[in-house]
Write a structure and sequence with these properties.
- The structure is a homodimer.
- By secondary structure, chain A is of the alpha+beta class.
- In chain A, helix 1 (5-20) crosses helix 2 (38-50), helix 4 runs parallel beside helix 6 and helix 7 packs across helix 8 (161-175).
- In chain A, the strands form five sheets. In chain A, strands 15-14-11-6-5-19-20-21 form an eight-stranded antiparallel sheet. The first copy, chain A, has a five-stranded antiparallel sheet with strand order 7-10-16-17-18, covered by helices on one side. A four-stranded parallel sheet of chain A has the order 2-1-3-4, sandwiched between helices.
- The first copy, chain A, folds into two domains: 5-183, Thermophilic metalloprotease-like (3-Layer(aba) Sandwich), CATH 3.40.1830; 201-227 and 248-399, no CATH class.
- Chain A has helices at residues 5-20, 38-50, 63-72, 83-95, 116-120, 129-136, 149-155, 161-175, 183-203, 297-304, 324-328, 335-338, and strands at residues 28-34, 55-61, 98-103, 140-145, 206-213, 216-222, 229-230, 233-234, 240-241, 250-252, 254-264, 269-271, 274-276, 280-284, 287-292, 313-318, 344-348, 369-373, 380-385, 390-395, 398-399.
- Chain A has twelve helices and 21 strands.
Chain lengths: 401, 401
């Protein structure tokens, strides 16, 4: 099945609106994007208005303007955050809006020529209200990938740009299951499967995980009431939504005080326009005490120094090799896809809804949430249960449960 | 003197920042633009940060998303205005920010296929807070033109697009005096000249103006304490700024109850993406009671029905034939340039700062302000003074004062 460029754009938009955010008649729909994402934003607007949206509110971020700031603004102004960014998000929250965020690098390398310490002081477009409104669960939201020429050239540097873009679109079509007869039905099946895996893991009552592989010897403690979650969330008002499209992960909430050892990232990480390669992080008593990389280390160090929780874990996620993304064996330089290709951990804030009431205050809190990939076929994952059993979870990338 | 594309872009940005808005160190700078204006926004950001701006806050409007709304949204939602649009503007006002707005059509004809009555219900990106914050005079602001390919093709439809764009840029360079050795000094001279004309007109103590020409026989009464203003404003905190670049007009505040007769627009008007051609408006006791046009009449009728003041005048402005814009004898389909080529009037809100205290409540109030051009070499403008004298003001487009 082959889709025309306008067909696949509209199918991706319809999936984001119809299943991902699950836009309801009468809702405001916030669309968060970067310049370069215009075509998909407009297809989403058409789809959302046809679904009965009251107002589609696109918000385009311009990384070139951010670059000018980091290059020229006074040092002591760089961490100033315009209050209206967060206020707009809180206004969406108060209205019970739907939200659709587009990802996909648009300006790779743009920040290579600026001082990474200065760059680290400006977290925008991320604002501290993001984890706040996620935790409130008033909004049905999703994150979807938006293919574009700059991203395509990053992923397929040896191809001419038109060919690279075509190939990236085909990959996105495949991993988003747009190449199935009914993408929404296909995702409902896949989500049910992931949720069964999550339920099995929750039933094991794990105390901690251990990752062992080349350069990696890491223990991640879990909070006692941590559940494993997957594919799908529900707002307080009862609207189902798929927060990430695609999604292939099951994830749980670490104890922010019990990460120990060393871990080598298995894929590059794109953050704030910088590419962080060959990342190695050492943890002591939950804290990332050493962050090294062959490029971009300063950017991550800057972000991990943002607040008390920024150097501790907020998420641990397992992904097996059967994921459609993992099978492509492609580095996408985009967390949304890469995190669903491999097991990963995230520095920064966790999800209070992932634990029971008594553990809520123990979930890590931070203004950041940065996933990085630590899984691969040669990284074994082993679980240790609360009652002392040792269970292989992933071997050669395959589930053992 | 010929400028390279990047030179002229940066010169225009530097003029907007250095003279138009007159950005001060430590200021937030709001930049209002449409998609298609990115390059100038970014040049402005560089210039503003170099001038010491604290934060440059671009806000891009996407007319394609608006088009989707008008095409598909429920009728009764079309006049809903997201509160965060106005709140962001009020936040800028509270901070005493600078503001730079870019104009220049980016999507001519986009709205030709929608129901003009539906289109008329959605005034965005205009919000009612615009005249409120202008009246408060806390912000130093300017409006500058932003050349682009779609606009160039509208102005020069017979040229290939690259050539049309080059020609539009040359016109903008000329009318913005970027082709002088020191554009800021050139504008200071020109502004002084316009202010002398305004002072002379104020000294005449005019009661009303009369416009007479082909299809036009219009009397515009002025408020008793109306001053003539030109080129330049000052914030309450004392920052000088040039609200329009270019500017060639002197303007005054009409009595909203005393416009009488019929007027034929001498140039097309672009409003909300629609081109309004061959506009004829008839006034009775200050109200526009009939609005006709060969295209786009519905759009203007919709806007003139927005509120009580939307069908009355808020501004009358005189422009002589010596303006650099007038001499080009080109229709730019953009009010900022066209209004400075010809005398004009505006439906909607007036400027309370244009009259003395006792007349403030009599200035027209409205959520709209739409200028349209009524002057030409064959339109005579005559003044009638408060003490009963009749004085020719413009004959053959030349000042008689």
């Amino acid at each position: 099945m082959s889709l025309s460029p306008s067909d696949r754009l509209q199918r991706l938009a319809d999936l984001a609106v119809g299943l991902g955010a699950n836009v309801q008649p009468g809702q405001v729909v916030g669309v968060t994007a970067a310049l370069g994402h215009e075509e998909l934003v407009r297809a989403i607007a058409r789809s959302a208005y046809k679904a009965g949206a009251k107002y589609v509110d696109p918000n385009y971020f311009d990384y070139h303007v951010k670059h000018a700031r980091i290059a020229y603004a006074a040092e002591d102004t760089l961490d100033w955050v315009p209050p209206w960014f967060g206020e707009r998000m809180l206004a969406h929250d108060a209205l019970g809006a739907a939200r659709i965020s587009l990802t996909g690098p648009t300006v790779p390398g743009l920040f290579d020529d600026v001082d990474p310490k200065r760059a680290g002081r400006d977290q925008l477009p991320f604002v501290k209200e993001v984890p706040v409104v996620i935790d409130r669960q008033n909004m049905n939201w999703t994150v979807v990938p938006c293919p574009g020429p700059a991203w395509a050239q990053l992923v397929y540097p040896d191809l001419p740009v038109a060919e690279a873009l075509e190939r990236l679109w085909q990959a996105v079509e495949h991993v988003c299951r747009l190449d199935t007869a009914d993408p929404i039905a296909a995702w409902r099946d896949r989500a049910a499967q992931l949720q069964r895996n999550a339920a099995t893991l929750t039933g094991l009552q794990l105390d901690r995980l251990h990752f062992a592989g080349p350069g990696t010897d890491l223990t991640v403690g879990l909070l006692p009431t941590s559940s494993w979650l997957a594919a799908g969330a529900t707002t307080k008002s009862g609207i189902r939504h798929l927060a990430n499209l695609p999604t292939e992960e099951v994830f749980a909430t670490p104890d922010p005080l019990r990460t120990e050892g060393i871990v080598r990232a298995t894929k590059p990480l794109v953050n704030g326009g910088a590419v962080i390669r060959d990342l190695v992080v050492r943890f002591e008593q939950g804290r990332a005490v050493q962050i090294d990389a062959s490029s971009g280390a300063e950017v991550l160090r800057g972000r991990a120094a943002l607040d008390e929780g920024a150097c501790r874990l907020g998420e641990v996620a397992l992904v097996d090799r059967e994921s459609r993304i993992g099978k492509l064996d492609t580095v996408f330089y985009e967390t949304l896809l890469d995190e669903n290709a491999a097991s990963h951990i995230a520095l920064g804030g966790g999800f209070p809804f992932g634990v029971q009431e008594g553990d809520r205050d123990r979930v890590n809190q931070s203004g950041i949430h940065i996933d990085f990939m630590i899984g691969a076929d040669d990284v074994d994952v082993t679980g240790f249960t609360q009652d002392g059993r040792e269970l292989p979870l992933l071997r050669g990338g395959a589930w053992q449960i």
